[in-house]
Amino acid sequence: MINRWLIFFACMLTGGSLGAWSPYRYGVATGLVTSAVVWLAIDSFYVSRMLRWLRGEQNSDVPSAIAQPVPRMPGVWGETLDRVRRLLKERDHQYQESQARLDEFLAAIQASPSGVVLLDAQGRIEWCNQMATQHFGFDAQRDMLQHIANLVRQPVFNAYMSANEFSHDVVIPGSSSTPARPVKLSVHVHAYGKNRKLLLSRDITALELAETMRRDFVANVSHEIRTPLTVLSGFIETLQTLPLKEPDRTRYLALMAQQSARMQTLVNDLLTLSRLEGSPLPGSIDWMTTRALLAQCEQDAHGLSTVLAARSHRIEFENGPACELAGVQSEVYSAMSNLVTNAIRYTPDAGLIRVSWKLLQGGRGEFTVSDSGPGIAPEHLPRLTERFYRVDRSRSRETGGTGLGLAIVKHVAQRHGAELHIKSQLGQGSCFSITFPAVRVRQVLKADFLENSCALHPTAVPEN
Ligand code: ADP
Asked: Can you tell me which atom of ligand 1 is nearest the CA of 338?
């Protein structure tokens, strides 16, 4: 600043000295005034350049960068401009940094599996993430600053918002919910800042479904166990209170044994299912021969047919090419045996049951059980593998069914990467098949080796 004063005085001195040399009367005064005017003109020129540059920066469309070249100026103006430029640069840097942080933060909220909506003090949408647009059917651009109550019109949600009590969540149907495919959302509002609100939404359809299934499952198991238990306790009471004759006692004890066997089968099936759900997926190290599996199933089929049918069924087994399957032997056997025993149980006396193994294109293998039984109406087919789902309740119970057989088959198939296919028509019999993927099937060329191997144990067949 001292420099500036010195230059100013030097200017005035020069102007005054030049004026003193002039022949005119007021030469000194004229010189001084002229110097001051020139000084002011030069100063104004620099001020206007600086102002023009600053205005240009203020009106620039690029807020985060210095848009125009910085004018060069001497002395104090140059320094002022340089300091302003540095300040602006620092501001730009901070702006860019906070913008990048905000972008990262928003990207993180976008990636959230929950819907996030920011509401202002009036309940208008300030921002929402992609998931919230899906949950509520918002349009991220069009619906900005719209009042949320105008867009989410569920009475239960509006009551929740107007009660202004957000200690709990509220469950409402999602925007894509239909009677056939209901979608349930859990919505929870959290107040923050000056009367602002953060709304979080979560799709709980699967959770609710699992909870309903769990409740149904417990109800079904209790029902299945209660019936034989009631019968058993009835007989026990009779045996305890009445002096029964020997034939009656024997008959009652036989019926009691039947009921307890029924409970045992049920508990065994439940344990099988829980084991299937809890154990790791089967690897591809243990191989079992299809012939041994089919031989065991054939034995079971004949045994059961003799017990159940007055006139035995016609049972045909087609072993197909000698193959090996990779997986858990007890599981695969249980799945195959379930299909075979179902065919025997649901096919009337003397009916035909065909069981076969064949190789499909691409190296896949198919195990098929078809019967000439009553068939199944199409509306039941999609539900057959549900736990405790039965088409013919009385036939199932009469023949010792638990309603869990096909659920076990489906589980085993899924665990082995196989598919269960069911084809059936009322009055035309049924056909159940399990298709194993090529990676779990290998054809065994040494057929005679397998011919001798009928035991249900994993066999290590040397491959050529
Ligand atoms: P269940 O122990 O009752 O047989 P499953 O899960 O094995 O239970 O079968 C479910 C239902 O599918 C059965 O109750 C029965 O109504 C029907 N079903 C299964 N296999 C056959 C079949 N081969 N023929 C006709 N109906 C069948």
From this structure: 7
